[in-house]
Amino acid sequence: LSPTRFYCSYSKYIQDNALNQFFATCLKQMQLMSRDVENQRRIRSAISNFESITSYDVQTVLAKKIEFNSTNAVVAETYEYGKLFLTSNFLTISPGNIKMNVMLFDMNRLFEKFIFHCVRHIYGSKASYQSTGHYLLKNKRSGKKHIRLRPDILVRGNDLKGILIDTKWKMPKSFAKDVDTYQMNAYSTSISNVERVYLLYPKTQNSAASEDDYEFISEEKNKRILSIRAIDLSNCLNWSLFLNEIKSLFA
Fold first, then answer.
1. What's the CA gap between 42 and 110, in Å, rounded?
2. pLDDT per position as a tens digit, 36-52
């Protein structure tokens, strides 16, 4: 190249480019797969930004060569997540030469919300998630309440009596964790019209050791029952049977 000359390159702004086509295809595939109402709402909102963009089948859009530069580098990480989704790939923690982005989930929250959606599917609007308005302490003089209680799942019948379910993503070795049972004791004494409280763990080799019904030791005439249960999450591959198993746990 001659240092005495200027060299220019020109480009034309086209919305219907390979990168936007990739994202449009991702959104269309997500729309086909998702069964969650909130996810569907978000997908529809995002798709509205790609109305003039052509979407292709998965193999075609993955075959398109996309190069990143200073203009589009801001979406490079999003593109990698999209590739993971379209290729149905998953990650393992092991050494290797392939650079991949990792997406981490709070398994306590994921397990909690998954079980709630199962219970909501069975009991409908009778089931509520982290219901508010429950407290452990009240000041005798002012009446001000302290220490908010927010149980994971509360199911109330037509008579307003119900059951309380608290999920724990843990693997107790011989018995439920002390802190979990203390929490369930607080729930059973402080939340009105709860006939039974359930502590739910994922099923493991050791979970059977603590699965049973227990009475809280107290001087009260009405015995309060804590039921410790475990659920085999691998059974969710057969959805109808899994829902029946969930229902049988709390019958």
1. 19
2. 888 899 999 999 999 99
